[in-house]
Amino acid sequence: MILSVRDLKVSFRTHDGPVRAIDGVSFDLKESEILGVVGESGSGKTVSLLAVMGLITDPNATIEGSIRYKGRELVGLPPRELRRLRGNEIAMIFQDPMTALTPVYTIGWQIAEQIRAHRGLSKSKAMERVEQLLAEVNFPNPHEAMSRYPHQLSGGMRQRAVIAMALSCDPALLVADEPTTALDVTVQAGILDLVRKLRAKHKSAVVFITHDMGVVSELADRVMVMYAGRVVERGTRTELFSDPRHPYTRALLGSIPPLTGQKPRRLPAIPGSPPSLLRLPQGCAFGPRCPARYEPCETGKPGLGASAHAAACFRVAQA
Amino acid sequence: MSEPMTNTNRPILETRSLTKRFSIGTRFSAEGRRTVHAVDNVSLTVRRGETVGLVGESGCGKSTLARCLVRLYDITDGKLLFEGDDITSKSLSELRPLRRRLQMVFQDPSASLNPRRRVGDLVAEPLRIHGKVSAREITARVAELFELVGLLPDHMMRYPHEFSGGQRQRVGIARAIALNPDLVVLDEPVSALDVSVQAQIVNLLADLQEKLKLTYIFIAHDLSVVRQVSTRITVMYLGSIVEEGPAEEVFATPAHPYSQALISAVPIVETTPAGARKRIILTGDVPSPLKPPSGCRFHPRCPIAVDRCRSERPELMEYRPGRKVACHFPTLT
Questions:
Q1: Are the Cβ atoms of A184 and B206 closer than 8 angstroms?
Q2: DSSP letters spanning A182-211
Q3: Which residue of chain A is at minimal alpha-carbon distance from B301?
Q4: Closest C-alpha to A26, from A230, A280, A241
Q5: What pLDDT sits at residue A8?
Q6: CB contact under 8 A, B267 and A252
Q7: Would you tell me how many other CB atoms lie within 10 Å of the CB of residue A126?
Q8: What is the pLDDT averaged over residues B72-88?
């Protein structure tokens, strides 16, 4: 097991009162497995992975629960220790590649710096490795690209450079937070293809965060659907897409317009909008928007249960 | 959204070889003054009651074209006709009566709504500017508009920040339809919204179109949303139209290799094994419109390009009524 998260809770103190961004998230990740995490804004998908990376440094945040990486507890680990893991064994890709690149150094220098910091290679050896990496992420002219600055590259190329940087130390775990959201579909297709190939080659475990059900269906082995800080459904890709159980998952899948076949006259839309974490409804957070709600949903929060394909819903538990 | 019967209708908006160029840099910058051909020779006909979907990658000129269509940008070359009337170079005061009939909805509703004004006021604003009606009439009309777009009457006294993204976009839409326009240009109206809210707005737009007999020009990068709302599709690449046709037809049997790649790249939910769907992965990025490639502008990324494509630029040809493509070797069905 690469990663094992148990009952993770993250809360923030804010001006408007305490906010629980993550409320009891648990999941496991095996070697060379791709876990897709789907959710809308505020669902907690990003915060839960920032917690895993030890990147929540806000003094107003409290993190509870357990995050084990290869059996080693990460919660409470001193920043020095964490830094040794991050970038080396655990790598991360963000939505906007410019947050990971500095504008004042060349791409080649930036990737080499990381390799030298973690691996202690000589400068020339590191540069050789950079060229290999850039070729691997399909830069047409890797040698020339090394001397380019980030602003000289297109969005897709920058994201590829960041992926090359993330892969530079052969990470066992790669966390990708909406890495293709800002890109065109044509470029996205190339990046998804790349992630698939790299998983096969480097055996990295990947956590892929997105709001796009289509992307998850293209890429993930297992899927976790989040809503208002909790996991509402999890299962393998096939289980989740051929037999979605949670009303939210079903509704979300139903509201996507089809790309082929008959156009529906109207889309089956979900009423309302995602709740604010400051004012979560009593009982099930999806309750107010749920077509299947009944009395138990008003008061209790449904649990996920232990089975592999599970949905946190009283209706499902009852069936 | 009604089916192609509308084809016999007269055009509401027409462009003839519309071109928009921007100058960038100064003569002192490293490369000197340069010209970007953002929209290049676009001839587009929009008929009453239809929805024309504009698709293409970022930088293909679809948003620039949209802004030219409502004269937010000055047009460099070519003609823009509204109901047969040439409005290419009309002055702002001459345009004012037209503005009422030609409206636009933007991507980010919070950027287009003044945060210091109550939303009731914001929706009333176009009525005050164009309507010359009494305060009582305005209040009644605002209430009517709120109901049309699915907002509650007591929302009128609130400020934009008190709304969710979806509700804010409803306010943006209410403003756009306040003056009973004929044509609404929608630039990425659902892209900034949460996935679970997008369908509501897509449905709202369809309802309004039916009730108010609106014509839409719809721009979005989400192709499945575009297919859902559009009767016709126009695919753009590097400032020019490469393919045009009825929405479902273009999606089912795209003729241009670029349209094929674009549509095949859309990730869709499927239960067959991952990666089973045949897809064309384009290499390289959209070239810079500063230095467009010779010949067919798509040739450097085209999987079927030959020598002829490098030297000779294909014209946009109508190979079947209502179906156009700009390619030397289109896939015709």
A1: no
A2: TS-HHHHHHHHHHHHHHHHHH--EEEEEES
A3: A186
A4: A230
A5: 94
A6: no
A7: 21
A8: 92
Question: Shortest CB distance from B281 goes to which of A189, A264, A266?
Answer: A189
Give the pLDDT mean for A192-196.
88
Helix (H, G, I), strand (E, B) or coil at A132: helix
Among all residues of chain B, which has the CA nearest to that of A239? B271
Mean pLDDT of chain A: 90
Please tell me which of the candidates B269, B270, B285 has its beta carbon nearest to residue A187. Answer: B285
CA-to-CA dists, residue B1 to B215, B261, B330, angstroms: 10, 27, 29
In sign, the C-alpha dihedral spanning B317, B323, B327, B328 is: negative
pLDDT above 50 (res B1): no
At A301 the three-state DSSP class reads: coil
In chain B, where the domains are located: 9-101+181-325, 113-179
Q: Are A183 and B265 in contact (CB under 8 A)?
A: no
B272 close to A (CB below 8 A): no
Q: What is the pLDDT of residues A196-247, one digit of tens each?
A: 888 888 889 999 999 999 999 989 999 999 999 999 999 999 999 999 999 9
Alpha-carbon gap, residue A31 to B214, rounded angstroms:
54
CB-closest option in B223, B271, B275 to A185: B223
Model pLDDT, residue B147: 92
**What average pLDDT does range B58-82 have in this prediction?**
91
Give residue B274's pLDDT: 54
Which residue does chain B place closest to A156, by CA atoms? B285
| Strands B232-237 vs B51-55: parallel, antiparallel or unpaired | parallel
Average pLDDT over residues A258-282: 88
Give the integer Cα–Cα distance in Å for A222 and A239.
Answer: 9
CB-nearest partner of A215 from B198, B227, B267: B267
Q: Which residues of A touch B230 (CB under 8 A)?
A: none
Task: Give the ipTM of the model, two decimals please.
Answer: 0.84
Query: According to DSSP H, which parts of A43-150 are helical?
Result: 45-53, 79-85, 107-119, 123-136, 142-145
Which whole-number Å values give the CA distances from B62 to A275, B57, B172, B238, B288, in the listed order? 34, 9, 20, 9, 15
Cβ contacts below 8 Å, chain A against chain B, sum to 135
The owner of tokens 């993190």 is A63
Read off the pLDDT band of B311 (50, 70, 90): very high
β-bridge pairing A222-227 and B323-325: unpaired
In chain A, residues with a C-beta closer than 8 Å to the C-beta of B262 are 185-186
Residues of chain A found within 8 Å of residue B221, distances taken between Cβ atoms: 184-185
Is the pLDDT at B4 greater than 70? The verdict is no
Q: Which CATH superfamily is domain B9-101+181-325 in?
A: P-loop containing nucleotide triphosphate hydrolases (3.40.50.300)
| B15 interfacial to chain A (CB closer than 8 Å) | no
Whole-number pLDDT of residue B2? 44
Judge: B199–A214 Cβ closer than 8 Å, yes or no: no
Residue with tokens 């999941």: A27
Beta strand ranges found along B51-112 (DSSP E): 51-55, 77-82, 85-86, 102-105
